[in-house]
Q: What sequence folds into this?
């Protein structure tokens, strides 16, 4: 099918009865959901619940053990690595930098799937990377080595690199983990803004509050199974959180129809 | 001029100066003006007024040796640069996957069976390729591990096995005839290089260099964690196989003619990265310039500091160790 570059494509992620895991070891099964353009979906679940494994399977980094995944109506398995990379931007859980690439070079790596095999990023790629960096408020870091910026700045650089892929779907694996409070809020604001611009967003978090703040739908994932999928206010309840995390939580309404979660300490 | 451009200019100037020096010094000194007039006469095709032995020294004796130092130095540095980026580790050298040990076993085997130089070189080249092929084959079959870690650990284990076979052959070798030849080969030398060795090694080195140059942008992504590089659209498995093959070809070609000369492929990429940063497209040309200059300088020292030839592998280690420790101490926290 024809692929239009430079414009937001109406990517729909369709996950149907998916079983996923590592070679020889199935982690989760019977997961089904779909995601349309402009929608942000949050995956909540305990450590080891299969969030990262699910994401890696959606990205085509792990083979599905059953069921199907389609991007734009196209089966994931029929897409090449670069075709997937032009559709899905990936923000991994933290990044250990080995070499002192500059932030600009790092973000330009996001352009690789749009380049010919033997090509090097050109002026247009540089301009796009610079624009993305500006839009995330880290333009001033362009020439800093990625090894020498703070954790929060590196997280934003990872988001910038994923946006440089010009994806229709952005997958973020715990984008707020290890960030200070201010940077957590900034990343959530960015997720809202990106969804508003028409990108479909799938992100994992350990904070149920973040699901209230930045997503339209929530998927509760425990032991590899989707317990519930729905609007945050419907799905995030004391009993579902108790089941998910094994602790008592109060879900308190705030002014303006918002909610917050407070653990009930014993 | 940016500091990056300055790095290239300085490296190229050093290379030029060292080349002139290498032609000039030695047991039979040749003046710079003699070299220039000889070059001019070769280019214009006119007869030169110089004594015949000057021409012999420059064209027959030093010419091939200087060229060999340049080719071997550049090839080892390029292979080291590729491997360090690919294995995300600045302490990696071109022989991490056993190419040197494999080549050494091949050469030692040929010496043990009293073969001539051509067979020794052929065995060395084949041994190097076979060792890496074996490591790669086993490493890629160890599923369920980080593919890079599997490769490196397999390389270490196979390298140790091949090393013990070399030790056995040394133990069994004739101590008056074969053992010195083996030791000499294991320490490396550019003394006995003939033009035909170069004619065989240079095309192989260029064949290995071509994919590195063409894929220079994608090489950068191999420095990322595997998942990230794949998510950005790079088929890391294919790219890694291609670069391992290219770097192995270059190293095996170099080792086959020069024996094992350590440190160049470890030290030079590291120094070049400090000067121009990790971008492979900028790094590779500088590493090759520096590698060629370094090995040429070392080889010139090897044949001039004493009445006997000093093995270059000894000198590169003597220079390399303190220099590397200094780099290490000076380096920023990151590479």
A:
């Amino acid at each position: 099918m024809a692929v239009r570059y430079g414009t937001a494509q109406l990517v729909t992620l369709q996950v149907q009865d998916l079983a996923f895991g590592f070679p020889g070891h199935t982690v989760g099964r019977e997961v089904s959901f779909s995601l349309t353009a402009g929608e942000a979906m949050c995956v909540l679940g305990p450590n080891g619940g299969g969030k990262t494994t699910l994401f890696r399977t959606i990205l085509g980094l792990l083979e599905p053990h059953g069921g199907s995944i389609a991007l734009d109506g196209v089966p994931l398995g029929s897409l090449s690595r670069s075709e997937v990379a032009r559709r899905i931007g990936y923000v991994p859980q933290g990044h250990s930098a080995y070499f002192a690439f500059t932030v600009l070079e790092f973000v330009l790596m996001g352009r690789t799937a749009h380049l010919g095999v033997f090509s090097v990023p050109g002026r247009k790629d540089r301009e796009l990377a610079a624009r993305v960096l500006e839009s995330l408020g880290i333009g001033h870091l362009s020439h800093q080595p990625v090894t020498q910026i703070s954790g929060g700045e590196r997280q934003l650089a990872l988001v910038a690199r994923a946006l440089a892929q010009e994806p229709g779907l952005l997958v973020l694996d715990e984008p707020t983990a290890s960030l200070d409070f201010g940077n957590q809020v900034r990343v959530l604001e960015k997720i809202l803004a990106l969804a508003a611009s028409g990108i479909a967003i799938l992100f994992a978090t350990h904070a149920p509050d973040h699901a209230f703040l930045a997503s339209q739908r929530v998927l509760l994932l425990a032991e590899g199974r989707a317990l519930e999928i729905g609007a945050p206010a419907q799905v995030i309840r004391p009993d579902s959180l108790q089941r998910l995390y094994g602790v008592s939580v109060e879900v308190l309404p705030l002014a303006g129809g918002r909610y917050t979660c407070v653990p009930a300490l014993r | 001029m940016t500091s990056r451009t300055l790095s290239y200019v300085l490296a190229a100037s050093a290379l030029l100066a060292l080349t002139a020096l290498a032609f000039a010094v030695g047991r039979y000194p040749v003046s710079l003006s003699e070299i220039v007039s000889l070059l001019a006469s070769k280019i214009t095709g006119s007869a030169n007024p110089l004594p015949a032995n000057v021409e012999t020294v420059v064209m027959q004796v030093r010419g091939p040796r200087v060229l060999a130092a340049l080719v071997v130095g550049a090839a080892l540095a390029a292979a080291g640069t590729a491997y360090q980026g690919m294995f995300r580790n600045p302490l990696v050298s071109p022989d991490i996957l056993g190419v040197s040990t494999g080549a050494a076993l091949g050469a030692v085997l040929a010496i043990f069976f009293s073969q001539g130089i051509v067979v020794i070189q052929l065995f060395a080249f084949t041994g190097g390729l076979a060792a890496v092929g074996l490591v790669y084959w086993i490493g890629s079959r160890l599923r369920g591990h980080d593919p890079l870690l599997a490769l490196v650990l397999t390389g270490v284990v196979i390298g140790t096995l091949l090393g013990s076979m070399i030790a056995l052959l040394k133990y069994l070798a004739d101590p008056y005839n074969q053992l010195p030849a083996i030791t000499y080969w294991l320490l490396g030398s550019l003394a006995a290089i003939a033009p035909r060795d170069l004619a065989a090694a240079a095309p192989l080195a260029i064949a290995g260099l071509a994919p590195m140059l063409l894929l220079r942008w994608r090489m950068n992504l191999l420095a990322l964690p595997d998942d990230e590089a794949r998510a950005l659209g790079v088929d890391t498995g294919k790219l890694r196989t291609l670069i391992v093959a290219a770097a192995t070809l270059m190293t095996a070609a170099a080792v086959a003619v020069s024996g094992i000369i350590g440190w160049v492929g470890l030290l030079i990429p590291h120094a070049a990265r400090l000067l121009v940063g990790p971008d492979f497209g900028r790094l590779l040309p500088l590493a090759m310039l520096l590698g060629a200059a370094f090995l040429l300088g070392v080889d010139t020292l090897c044949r001039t500091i004493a009445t006997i030839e000093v093995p270059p592998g000894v000198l590169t280690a003597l220079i390399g160790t303190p220099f590397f420790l200094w780099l290490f101490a000076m380096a920023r926290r990151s590479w």
Summary: Chain B has one domain: 3-330. The radius of gyration of chain B is 20 Å. Residues 52-86 of chain B form the longest helix (35 residues).
